[in-house]
Amino acid sequence: MSDEINLSINGKHVIAKSGERLIDVAARAGDYIPRFCYHPKLSVVASCRMCLVDVEGIPKAQPACAMTVTEGMVVQTQSKKAIEAQKAIMQFLLINHPLSCPICDQGGECELQDTAMGYGEGISEFTENKRAVVSEDLGPLVATDMSLCIHCTRCVRFGKEIAGVANLGLMGRGDGSYISTYLNKGLSSELSGNMIDLCPVGALTSKPFQYKGRSWGFKQHRGVSPHDCVGSNINYHTIAKGYDHLSDVMRVLPAYHPTLNESWLSDRDRFSYEGINSKKRLLKPWVKSGEGWREVDWQEALALIVPKIEAQLKQDKSKIGVWLSSQMTLEEGYLAQRVFRKLGIDNIDHRLWENTKSQDDSLRPAAVTIQDIASFDTIVLVGSNIRYEQPIIAMAIKQANDNGTQIHTIGAVDYEPYFSYTHHPTAPQQLARQVFEMGIEAQDGGLLAGKILYVLGEEALVHPQITDIKQMIHVRCEGQDHAYLVLTPGPNSLGMMAAGCIPHQSSWLKGNSLGIGYQQMLDKKMEMMWLHQVDPMHDVSDPERAYSVLKQAFVVAVATHDSPHIRDCADIILPVAAASESPGSYVNYLGELQTFCAATRPKGEAKMGWSIYRVLGQLMSVDVMSEYETLHLEVARRYQQMKWPKVSIDRIKNPEDIDAEWMRLGLTSWVRGDMQVRHAESLQQAYPVDEKVYCGDERSESVLKPYIPSISTSTRIAPGALVYEKGFVFYGASVGVVLAGDAA
Question: Which residues pair with 21 in a beta bridge?
Answer without folding.
Answer: 68
